[in-house]
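Q: Please design a sequence for this.
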């Protein structure tokens, strides 16, 4: 090989290594180091990340995160699509990826009204199940799923989004069928879910998880009522997850502080479980998956310097609150890894569509330095 050729090949190799390293952010600190004395920090990989089809996103997760939650693959629809069929492979890949990287694994989620097949609530004739039959089905699902990952998935979002904005319980099939319209039985489905999750893995932490707890005091009070109810019955609950799907102008510092301090006052851990910030200025504020989608939250100004600056400022503000309350906040998980595969449009995360850290990333790192 001629000298010139050797030089060309060598430069190409250096360039390629550079590109690969760049995507993991070689010159930036790892978030898990930045926050190691404060709280766990994580992301929500989807299937392509944990199975190796999106190596750049996997590199971000491996470098920056010490905890992960699967974005979709543990939801009933995915893991238990038919009465007699469980689809373990994707969740197994999630667990293997997390264990390889020594991450704290969170299971999401066992009892939810969304992404749960219709058959769950029906008998073979398509009629609504009885209370007892639905309880039996819930028990079987929880026992099977939590049992499979016993000792490996360390925390579970046992019940997800059971509340309305005004703090009352949401009119879901879980409440309708198991609650039977009776005041006395309204918390029954939640009680049973937590009991059976605990039986299936006595060492796992168990959480209640919801959105808008930081923007609606009534809803936050509803979450506190759930915690207190379980505690009054002697049922294990370790934490409440504040999803925190925010926007450039919300939540307010006061709203977030109210949620953290009032939930922590019940004695449970508080965690931010699905953090992202919608750059789109108008529209619905919340995370009802029936109302949010990528097209609906798209934002033509997402990439502008002005929007990125506002995003960085909002992230800095949120992290300064989380750091101020670090004795109560045990974990902060972003909902996704990078903008390109986020469930919402615009520019909601710390890494852009080219896997590069954004201004918001550096703002978050700086917030930690100011503690
Ligand atoms: C979202 C996922 O990110 C999407 O990919 C999916 O299509 C719908 O669900 N609250 C939750 C999460 O608890 O499970 C939701 O995740 C976002 C809102």
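A: Design:
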């Amino acid at each position: 090989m001629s000298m010139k050729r050797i030089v060309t090949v060598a430069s190409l190799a250096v360039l390629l290594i550079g590109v690969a390293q760049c995507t993991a952010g070689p010159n930036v600190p790892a978030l898990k180091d930045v926050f190691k004395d404060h709280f766990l920090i994580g992301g929500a990989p989807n299937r392509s990340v944990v199975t190796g089809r999106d190596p750049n996103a996997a590199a971000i997760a491996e470098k920056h995160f010490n905890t992960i939650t699967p974005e979709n693959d543990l939801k009933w629809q995915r893991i238990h699509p038919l009465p007699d069929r469980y689809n373990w492979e994707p969740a197994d890949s999630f667990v293997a990826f997390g264990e390889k990287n020594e991450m704290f694994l969170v299971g999401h989620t066992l009892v939810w009204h969304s992404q749960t097949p219709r058959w769950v609530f029906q008998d073979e004739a398509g009629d609504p199940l009885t209370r007892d039959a639905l309880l039996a089905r819930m028990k079987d699902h929880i026992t099977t799923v939590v049992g499979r990952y016993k000792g490996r998935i360390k925390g579970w979002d046992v019940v997800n989004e059971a509340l309305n904005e005004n703090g009352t319980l949401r009119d879901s099939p879980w409440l309708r069928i198991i609650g039977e319209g009776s005041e006395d039985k309204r918390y029954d489905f939640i009680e049973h879910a937590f009991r059976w999750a605990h039986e299936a893995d006595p060492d796992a932490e168990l959480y209640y998880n919801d959105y808008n707890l930081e923007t609606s005091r009534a809803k936050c009070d509803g979450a506190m009522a759930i915690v207190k109810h379980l505690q009054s019955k002697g049922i294990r609950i370790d934490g409440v997850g504040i999803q925190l799907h925010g926007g450039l102008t919300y939540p307010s510092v006061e709203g977030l502080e109210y949620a953290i301090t009032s939930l922590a006052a019940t004695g449970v851990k508080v965690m931010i479980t699905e953090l992202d910030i919608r750059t789109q200025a108008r529209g619905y504020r919340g995370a009802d998956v029936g109302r949010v989608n990528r097209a609906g939250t798209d934002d033509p100004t997402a990439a502008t310097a002005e929007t990125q600056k506002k995003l960085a400022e909002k992230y800095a503000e949120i992290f300064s609150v989380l750091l101020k309350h670090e004795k109560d906040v045990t974990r902060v998980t972003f909902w996704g890894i990078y903008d390109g595969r986020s469930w919402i449009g615009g520019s909601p995360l710390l890494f852009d569509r080219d896997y590069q850290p954004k201004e918001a990333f550096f703002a978050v790192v700086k917030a930690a330095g100011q503690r």
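Q: Thanks. Anything notable?
A: The chain has one domain: 29-370. The two ends are 56 Å apart (CA to CA).
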